[in-house]
Design a protein that fits this description.
Length: 124
């Protein structure tokens, strides 16, 4: 009889703990936002009008500009945008103004070193 009560108590505790964990998890809500990365299809942003603006030395790039617009159901504008022009290159912060993005390099980058254009954007 005492053994049955112990088993019943353990089962009851497992149910109570499980129900508590579910209650806390069910209460979490996350506000809608957009995010996107590379060419992978992600509900987020559409990038267009990419321009590599050359330095007076045409082998170097001063700025990279493009337009960015929300896509999908969420209409949150991009606030933070970063780019990367190659696998071993650090992320570059860009400025966003009314959907127009400008990424300015204090020291121009070599055209031959641009092997990719990875763009990360978020509405936060």
């Amino acid at each position: 009889m005492f053994q049955t009560l112990k088993v019943l108590f353990v089962v009851l505790m497992v149910i109570v703990i499980g129900a508590s964990a579910y209650a806390f998890a069910a209460a979490n809500t996350i506000p809608d936002s957009n995010a996107g990365y590379a060419a992978t299809v992600v509900s987020g942003y559409t990038v267009s009008n990419i321009a590599y603006n050359l330095n007076t030395d045409p082998t170097k790039i001063d700025t990279i500009t493009f337009d960015i617009a929300p896509s999908g159901a969420n209409t949150a504008a991009a606030v933070t945008v970063k780019i990367k022009t190659g696998a071993a290159v650090a992320w570059k912060d860009c400025t966003v103004a009314a959907g127009a993005v400008t990424c300015t390099y204090a020291t121009p980058i070599n055209v031959v070193d641009v092997t990719a254009l990875d763009i990360v954007a978020t509405s936060n």
